[in-house]
Amino acid sequence: MFTEPHWLLLLFPGLWAVFALRMRSRKIMALRILVVITVILALAGMQLRLPGREGMLVVVADRSLSMPADSDTRISETLSLLRQQMPGNAKLGVLSFADEVRVEMPPGRGSFSGFSSTINPEASNLSEAIERALSLVPGDLAARLIVVSDGLWSGKDPIPAAFKAAARGVPIDYRLLSRDTANDLAISRFEVPGLLEPGENFMLAAEIYAPIEQVATIELLCAGKTIASVSRQLRRGSNSVTFRHSSGEASVLKYELRVTGSHGKDPVPENNIAAALAEVRGRMPLLLVSENPDNPLAVLLKKQNQRVEVMSPIDISWSLEFLAGYSAVIIENVSANRLGMHGMQVLSAWVRHLGGGLLLTGGRNSYGNGGYYQSVLEPILPVSLELRSEHRKLALALVLVLDRSGSMAAPAQGDRTKMDLANIAAANTIDLLSPLDEFGLLAVDTEPHVITDLQPLTNKDAVRNKVLRVESMGGGIYVEAGLSKACEMLLTSKAKTRHIILFADASDSEQPGQYWVLLDKAGRAGITCSVIGLGRETDSDANLLKKIAAEGKGRIFFTNDPGELPRLFTQDTFVAARSTFLDEPTGVETSEALAVFTGKPLSLRSSVGAYNLCYARPEAQIAMKTTDDNNAPMIAGWQQGLGRVACYMGVIDDTLGQPFLNSAGASEILVGLCLWTAADERQSIDNMPVTQTIVNGQWQAVLHLDPEREREIFRENPQITVLRSFAGQEPVSENLTMNWDTADSLSASLQLRGNETLVSMVEAGNNRRLRLYPVCLPYSQEYRPQHLEAGSQALREMAAITGGVELIDLSQAWQSMPSTVQFRNISDWLLLFALLLMFLEIAERRTALLSILLGRLQRQAKQPAPAAASTGSDKVAWRPLAGPDKTTPVEAQAEPQTDVVKPESGFAGALKKAKKQADRRTGK
Q1: 393, β-bridge pairs
Q2: What does DSSP say about strands 143-149 and 172-176: parallel, antiparallel, or unpaired?
Q3: How far is CA 157 from the centre of its chain?
Q4: Cα–Cα–Cα angle for 312, 313, 318, nearest 5°?
Q5: What angle do CA 161, 166, 170 make, to 5 degrees?
Q6: CB atoms near residue 353 (< 10 Å)
Q7: 633 with 540, same domain?
Q8: Which of 99, 300, 395, 910 is at 20 to 30 A from 33, Cα to Cα?
Q9: 353 with 642: CB under 8 angstroms?
Q10: Phi, psi of 489 (to 5 degrees)
Q11: pLDDT tier at 697 (50, 70, 90 boundaries)?
């Protein structure tokens, strides 16, 4: 067999060239013919067909939550044994799987050093793992897969993947590892209707598996409150439980079922709590986020018979299922810090992808002053929040005191350290300041280091480059030394506003000294100090940082996320600059665009006691502006993704807001603004129902068409935007295309993971949309009761399909490798043989070495066996005479003797003979 057979075409011209030279010696010609043939065979990639059992083993390791706690260690031991027993030319590869599949060690002869990939353990995607393992196996190589797992899978059925392995002749062996679930009391099923009508009575059904007969307490909760609790005698096996409940008004209901047994410790407590979601149809209420439960805006809305719920930000657990129960969210003078990073992430995703509404009102804790500049929410606001120099009335002298102790060298985001993010935050602060402002930077460990002295920002790029090069140098942060140096620098400034921002680790701030004395003197000189603590309010030095901020008459911020530092730095700079919240009476007037928000034309000229200075974005609709020199927007709105966002820059819950609230028509404007954001136009797609199901962790949405329709109603397949989120994590959106299942239905599906919530929006073109009710798993599929999931049966079935076995003795893994024909390339050996032939041909031409050797071999083959030696010099021939016993001796005639010159023998003779032959050829 040849890998490059086209080179064989050179045989004919190559042999013709050899014969054309007409060599006088047949031996030399034969050598040259062999050289040409050998080289051409090497170029053609000649291969030998050899039988063998050497091949490849790919270990498919399960790392999901359903595996035993020590499974990684046990799998590593298995791999170590396989590596020790590996034959000479065999290969060993390793991949791991859970929700994703990762190649831990490509097939080769290296040793396994442990699992290095970070993997989400909330699922068991065995099907994808088998297919990925098959992709690592070359088509011409004998191979086996070894699945080390408990056999519990989620998502796609792995049996079709096993048939693919069988078609390729790759057996799947398995080694069973499973946790101890002998006493596992579990909720095996919990079902709630996904969509309900207001006031509907419905049933909640559940099944509870008991390993032995016992008494259990069963508790049902709705929105975190217990609505039913019973004690029940459970028999061994499956037990059915049902509850009745009423849906109430339009909302999203979250139910939890909890079961507590009476027989010892449960090995898998995670499956003793199950969750389910249900949506009650109708117009969802408004959510007003405010620190004041009697907020005037809530009063206005209730007077207009609008459903509104007032909640403090501290009482809200931001999640997709929570927001799905509201039509719009009104953030009324609440800072971004109170919402938290996760809250803002969920709000932004809910507006853009699911059509939620958002209204932001003004105040001292809102917009730039409230920390929304460079926040997750800022991009979806119809106004920009930057600090423009043309509206600055007072110059600012700002000194940043940065902690550069050893703790700042810790990694934070990707390849960035905490120090890198602090540097970026300081650089962003520079961008907010104008050339009239002054800026200085200190990096502090055991002593302050001046990175840039206090100076006007006439060359921002040069200052920024210095700031971004600050590095952590070890040690701790000496607070008093840093504050003292900062005050010394600010005392030289003539700016009316002088401010310090101290950034320190909340668990590593040292040597505060008599900071209260220092800050008291600074305060009398007009210097204020805010503190940004990296860590939590419960950390060891958090109270110290709070006291420093209080004595410095500044603000205190804590964050455990270094990525929040740029926003916090800019927020405090906004407040210190005193330029974006204007607390002076200002006239306002409406525009024709107000009719977009109120539904009818309105005209109003009034005044506001204070407002947040912002700037309209080009695409926004401006319904009201100030009449002062700023001509700033007061009411702005726009469409953001599928949702609507509006901003009112005036104050509501304050005496400063009374001038506008008391104006005729003001309440109608504010209520209309709230209802505009809450508009819901996503209730149906031509009355075609969409159903949702979850089977074995696989979510599927099916769009059902009218079987009697006269024409196809879709030019393109409908799309589904899926928003999914784990508790405390940023939501992630995915776009799916619905594909035809039957002539009258289309569907899309994906794998659910752990405790995530999924909310989706179906889009069918021509502005036809339908938001589906939220769904979730009862609990992670990895905690399903194993008595219901024949994990070992799935592994046995895959082994039976492919010809694999259960591996109890690992020594059998390599011995059971299928015998296959293997092709070995011998091109290198052929080239080496051709080189030897060329040396032999040269030796024959120069010394006739081959001719001599062949001649000696011929003579040795023809030489007869030696005769017996004679002892006498005379030879006598006897001839019998006539008659018995009478003989006459006859003397033999002597033969003439001649002298014969014997040829020289040995190596010297051969050389002399070869020289004579060479002389004859050359004519000497």
Answers
A1: none
A2: parallel
A3: 23
A4: 130
A5: 100
A6: 23
A7: no
A8: 910
A9: yes
A10: -70, -40
A11: confident
- Mark whether 694 and 649 lie in a shared domain: no
Domain finish residue from 545, 576, 607: 576
pTM value?
0.74
Q: Say what the pLDDT of residue 872 is.
A: 44
Tokens 């200052």 identify what position? 463
C-alpha to C-alpha distances, 608 to 228, 388, 464, 584, 586, nearest whole angstrom = 51, 22, 39, 8, 5
- The tens digit of pLDDT for each residue in 395-429 reads 899 999 999 888 888 887 777 888 999 999 999 99
DSSP 575: H
**Phi, psi dihedrals of residue 196, rounded to the nearest 5°:** -130, 160
- Longest alpha-carbon distance in the chain: 178
Nearest to 407 by CA among 501, 558, 508, 482: 508
pLDDT, tens digit, 9 for 90 and up, residues 879-909: 444 444 444 444 444 444 444 444 555 555 6
CA-based nearest residue to 130, from 167, 90, 101: 101
Mean pLDDT across the chain: 86
User: For residues 96 and 75, what is the distance between their CA atoms, to the nearest angstrom?
Assistant: 10
Strands (E), 475-614: 477-478, 497-505, 509-510, 527-534, 553-559, 581-582, 586-590, 605-608, 611-612
For the chain, how far is it from start to end, CA to CA, in angstroms?
51
- SS3 assignment, position 15: helix
Is 923 among the domain residues? no
Which residue would you say has higher pLDDT here, 573 or 387?
Answer: 573
Predicted local distance difference test score (pLDDT) of residue 465:
93
pLDDT of the residue at 887: 42
Q: Is residue 140 part of a domain?
A: yes
Three-class SS state of 185? coil
Which residues is 692 bridged to in the sheet?
Answer: 701
- 874: its two tokens: 């005379």
Nearest Cα to Cα of residue 255 among 774, 852, 742: 774
In whole angstroms, give the CA distance from residue 457 to residue 475: 31
Report how far residue 778's alpha carbon sits from residue 796's, in angstroms, rounded to the nearest whole number. Answer: 28
Reading the block at residue 794, the tokens are 């799935």
Cα 502-504-509 angle, rounded to 5 deg: 120
Within this chain, do residues 20 and 74 fall inside the same structural domain, yes or no? no
In a shared domain, residues 25 and 80: no
